[in-house]
Amino acid sequence: MIDCTPSGVGQQNKNVFYNKYKSNTLGFIAQGSEFGFGKMYAVGINEEAIDPAKDQFIQVVSCNTHSLAILLKTIGSDAQGVLNNIEESKFILMRRANDVSQAEDFIPAPQLGKHDDKQFGTHHARDVYHLYKTLGVELNTFSSAMKLPTQYMHSLWFNMKLKDKTSLEEIKNRFIENKYVAITGRRFSNEVFSFGRDHGYFGRLLNQVVISMPTVEVIYGGHEVVGFGLTPQDGNSLLSTVAATLRFLYPTEWWEKLSYFDRFIFKEV
Questions:
Q1: Where are the beta strands (DSSP E) in the chain?
Q2: Which of 102, 86, 95 is nearest to 33 (CA)?
Q3: What is the pLDDT of residue 130?
Q4: Binning pLDDT at 50, 70 and 90, where does residue 88 land?
Q5: In 3-state terms, what secondary structure has residue 160?
Q6: What residues have CB less than 8 Å from 66, skipping those under 6 apart?
Q7: How big, in percent rounded to 5, are the helix, strand and coil portions of the chain?
């Protein structure tokens, strides 16, 4: 069961319906901000934390949370993929006001978001914290959000303080080498959106994040990384949803079957 209802309804459906049918259903998946629905999941992030035989309820994190998660892993992990070099991380999520399919929710100017969570700011940092907690990693992270009067793509700014210093060349190489990160020389979101529309799977990029390489800098003697990225709409969440579904259906073959979509995970856009 893949629940694609509006925010909050998935939790209601779990309480009213899904708990009744746990005995004859392989699994239940909710997308986005259904905090508490089940174990948090993002493909390529916490595979080892998921056991389909035990984790019957899965919450696929939001599209922006996917971007935060892959940035943290790419910048802050060691050679074995262990996230252990992030001292502190901060994000500003600049969200599109409405999708191209939506006629409502237009805003005339940038709308500044509130910090509803005293520890994490917005749900994005809270969710990425709990996503990595499934791996036994606890992050010092905070996020702010705002809406922009555009339909194209979410964008984000990141700031990561590192325990061990790095170089700009090292960070850029990490972005290039990570399968789920697309790099670009573009700085206009509409150009990246257009690439996805023309070349993506039904118009969608399936990468976790698109990094604008001209905006990436390493500062303060190599201990801080800043830059801008773009979130591929719902493409990253959809890929994780498909991955979670395949894990329930084909426990030993799911990764091979998921590789069908590799052609829509781009190295550069």
A1: 2-3, 28-31, 39-41, 57-60, 86-96, 111-112, 141-148, 154-162, 181-184, 209-212, 217-219, 224-231
A2: 95
A3: 97
A4: very high
A5: strand
A6: 42, 45, 208, 209, 231, 236, 237, 240
A7: 35, 25, 40
What pLDDT was estimated at residue 102? 77
The ranges assigned to domains in the chain are 2-61+236-264, 63-233
**Distant-in-sequence, close-in-space partners of 234: CB < 8 Å, separation ≥ 6:** 31, 63, 204
Q: Which of 63, 191, 226, 76 is nearest to 139 (CA)?
A: 76
The CATH architecture of the domain made up of 63-233 is 2-Layer Sandwich (3.30)
Residue 67 CA to residue 207 CA, distance in Å, equals 9
* Cβ–Cβ < 8 Å for 56, 22: yes
Angle value at C-alpha 144, between 142 and 148, nearest 5 degrees: 155
